[in-house]
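Predict structure. Chain length: 422.
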Amino acid sequence: MIDDIYAPHIAEIKKALGDRASEETILADLEKLVKYRVPVAEAKRSIIKKYGGTDSVKKTLSEITAEDRDVEITVKVLEVTKRDVEIRGVSRTILTGIVADNTAQLPFTAWSELDLTKGEVVNLRGAYVRSWQNQIQINLGDRCDITKQDEAAGIKAEIMPTKLADVKEHANNLHILSVVLEANEQTVHTKEGDKTITSGILADDTAKLPFTSWVQNPNLTKDATIYIENAYAKVFRGVPTINISEQTTISPSEKIVTPVVKANQQSVYDLLKREGAIDIIIKGNIVCVRPGSGLIMRCPECKRVIQQNICRVHGPVAPVPDVRVKSVIDDGTGSLTLVLDARLTEELLGYSIEEAKKMTSDAMSSEVVEENIREQFVGKMVAVNGNMSNGEYGAILLAESAWFPVDDLKEEAIALLKERGV
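Prediction complete.
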């Protein structure tokens, strides 16, 4: 007879294992583990794992968190794509896609060729969860049990297009509704020989992003409204780029899209949620000028900043002088690094490369230009247009143009005076 102390635990383990082990066997294992001071919860997990079972917790997709390790979900497969990858030097075929229930949709990765078909409803038991690029992802391993469900199981989910502002690095199975702002064909050299690709700019009502199509498609024409299915994203020059492959479907769409065409002003707070952006404007105050500003020396080969004429890649080199400003801009909602190149440094602050070299020589100090820029630039309100990347070095805006917004300052001052009744 089973001890009343263990009865509820035995029942729970038995439910997870089914016919894989008898109650007597489970009791013997449980008593042994408890005898060796293994906590009951851990002992239960150990026994379930020993006999190939799962203690999955049933959840809806909206209830899943990044901390979940073993869940049971009933979902509809909205998208599934076979991919060949290399893991630790071994070639492997995996599945990626999107699953959904009536509460949410999430990307998934199956680390082997599981029996999953687009459009079917399945119960997945023994799935686990990972957070990748700040996005929850369902992972399916060899121990995941798949049970086909009635297609009329009550899940009415359809795939939801991803807004361009929400595209993340390494995202797969992207569905995007957008307008083609630019499309240009070019020939590139690949391992398989010369290839004609199409590159350009896509836009929706949230953002603009570059795209590259590795296959020619007649729907990729300027001003066309298109629906892209099963694209993927890679970061190029710090900005997520939509990649279109042979597995991607592109079709004309009659839906109305109001695309972002001109550069639009955004808050730093909103930009920091993204992994990159192109052609955006921010306005804010310069709160500091960082070391590495002013007159710098670059490697003539790789353009890296060098010290004492030594490049870490190319060794001793003849340095090429350059001028830049590395600063921090704050708009009241957040801050990021702002970089001005030599052209903008001269246009905005008046320091050309030749003038910077002369100042450095006259003062016999390599820091004199940086100090002068700091005195002149810190505290100023500046407007900047450019591209933003948000990676391992933080958020960085590379300016394409910059100006001191005098009219805006007047308007802000007038508004402030009115608020105070002056």
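Summary: The chain has a mean pLDDT of 88.
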